Amino acid sequence: MKFDTILVFDFGGQYSHLIARRVREYNVYSEIIPCDVTPKEVDALQKKYNVKGIILSGGPSSVYSENAPKIDPRMLVLGIPVLGICYGHQLIAHISNGKVIVGKRREYGVARITIDKGIGVLKDLGSKEKVWMSHGDTVHELPEEYEILAHTENSPIAAFRHKKRAIYGLQWHPEVIHTENGMKMLRNFVFGVCNCKANWKTEKLIEKGIQEIKNVVGNKKAIMALSGGIDSSTASVLATKTLGKNLTAVFVDHGFMREGEPEFVKATFEDLGMNLILVKAQKRFLDKLKGIIDPEKKRKIIGGEFIRVFEEIAKNIGAEYLIQGTIYPDRIESGIRKHSDKIKSHHNVAGLPTKIEFKGIIEPLRDMYKDEVRKLAETLGLPQEIVWRQPFPGPGLAVRIIGEVTEEKAELVRRADKIVTEEIEKSELKERLWQYFAVLTDTKTTGVKGDSRAYGYTVAMRAVESKEAMTATFSKIPYSVLERISTRITNELPLITRVVYDITHKPPGTIEWE
Ligand code: XMP
Asked: How many Å lie between the centroid of ligand 1 and the Cα of residue 81?
């Protein structure tokens, strides 16, 4: 069965993903594709999907900049409704011979629009609406066949439509929550303008994933790297359901796992009936990391060694296929948009070599977003601790130890991390935090323990609130909780004399320190 589908043409905007997710929230399938797709390619996509609408995303360019991304103007006469958002809005005007002027200053933040004509995408809204703007250029003049639907003080043409064809432009971002009635605007487009049926569900992707694993692997053996994170856990359970004992999940303990993690993963997945190999490879990784302080080198070494271990196991058990937990944002971010059918190895551990020799690589979650994976994980009966686990970097605690990694430091950061985790979980702050953890800095400071001078390590604590990890804010944790954590760390870990709290948002600071 083909699903009604909205294609999102990606002009590189930071919210392109959000548009597709919002559409999916209405149970209508949405796929992000590169903006330079040709009408012929769109036609070919009709074999897979019922393409009922096209949304042109925002993007960082100006229509006048050199190499500004454009669409083939024939897209506007295919008979498929088009909605341009921000850059997409300007681009429609530009290629239709309207006039876009380069703004002297950016309009950024919440703006009030006045709706001049509440039809189409703007049906059933108030005469004034609060919307989220983030643009430099503005549409200044429209060609004859278009009409204005809304304006703001700074943008005389904040929304428009074609008088005869289903083509709309919005200067603002309906997909962002700060646009109060943004979902209503998208719904107007998806259902009112494009006449989509809400006939798509995440579960449909499960059937597709299972079928694909069956078709490719057949009765041969497959292997997959299980980190215990939500994506690889869900993919492993799905693959086990399909392949049974022909699937071997491999958990590599590189020595930089959190306290109790290898045991937790082993017990959980064995309980779920999975064929699991736990490889203890701590010494191997530590040896390779001797003397290394550069974070990127650390990541590369860990990634490289990880794959060596993994390949050895695959060879031993005679696995010809690799299954991976790659999800949609991973694929988009690793730039495989144009050639998405090409076999390419993407792995959650940063720094892995890009090609691994397997007969085939299958990514059953490749069209899913994190929240969809969570739903799937719940349907598959994964325990809540896995479904709601905090993200953890592939290189593990090694990127939370600044400077050279040693066994002693790994143990220290592991124990500090455990204290942070226990206290946060006791304090009921957990629900609102995206991640909370300890970092062992390479700064030593003077302290006093008992009656004597102490000279020891500084631990930094990080706790952030975030939705998708693209941006994050440091959490304003109560001092009483910070105090308990600081006291426990310095009391229970004699080598640590100081605890500091990281008050940096992302951007500019990333979530992890390395
Ligand atoms: P940053 O530090 O870039 O991290 O703000 C964003 C999110 O990604 C996680 N992270 C990783 N996840 N492999 C992963 O699977 C990695 O190498 C890696 N590095 C960072 C990080 O914990 C945060 O949630």
From this structure: 38
Whole-number Å distance between alpha carbons of 54 and 64:
23
In the prediction, which pLDDT does 201 show? 86
What residue's CA is closest to ligand 1, atom 9? 393
Q: Count CA atoms closer than 13 A to 236's CA, side-chain side.
A: 28
Q: From ligand 1's centre to the CA of 338, what distance in Å?
A: 25
Separation between Cα atoms, residue 204 and residue 125, nearest integer Å: 33
175 is catalytic: yes
CA pair distance 451, 64, nearest whole angstrom: 70
Residues 6 or more apart whose Cβ sits within 8 Å of residue 417: 258, 259, 397, 400, 437, 438
Q: Which of 291, 418, 303 is nearest to 351 (CA)?
A: 303
Give the number of other Cβ atoms within 10 Å of residue 176's Cβ.
20
User: Which pLDDT score is estimated for 341?
Assistant: 27
Ligand 1 binding residues, C-beta < 6 A: 348-350, 391, 393-395, 435, 469, 506, 510-512
What pLDDT score does 355 carry? 53
- Residue 457 tokens, joined: 């390590």
pLDDT of residue 512: 94
Distance 144 CA to ligand 1 centre (A): 50
| Ligand 1 atom, smallest distance to 513 CA | 2
Residue 206 pLDDT: 82
Residue 508: is the preceding peptide bond cis (ω within 30°)?
A: yes
Distance CA 222, CA 446 (A): 53
Query: To which H or E segment does residue 411 belong?
Result: helix 407-426
Contact 122, 185 (CB under 8 A): yes
- Rounded average pLDDT per 10-residue block, the chain, 514 residues: 92 86 93 91 92 95 90 95 97 96 80 96 97 91 97 93 98 92 97 96 83 94 93 95 96 96 95 95 97 93 89 92 86 44 33 61 86 89 92 93 97 98 95 96 93 94 87 94 98 97 92 94
Neighbouring C-beta atoms of residue 126, cutoff 10 Å:
12
Q: Could you tell me the CA-to-CA distances from 496 to 23, 169, 447, 448, 503 in Å, in that order?
A: 50, 58, 9, 11, 20
* Active-site residue identified among 17, 31, 35, 86: 86
Indicate which residue of 173, 254, 346, 347 is catalytic.
173
Give the residue, by CA position, lying nearest to ligand 1 atom 3.
510
Q: Which atom of ligand 1 is nearest to the CA of 227?
A: 15
Q: Are 145 and 164 in contact (CB under 8 A)?
A: yes
CA 392–ligand 1 middle distance (angstroms)? 7
Q: 173 catalytic, yes or no?
A: yes
d(CA 460, CA 450): 23
**Is residue 162 annotated as a catalytic residue, yes or no?**
no
Positive or negative: CA dihedral 142, 184, 60, 17: negative
Indicate the DSSP class of residue 401: B
Using CA positions, which residue lies closest to atom 18 of ligand 1?
393
Q: What's the one-letter identity of residue 273? A: G
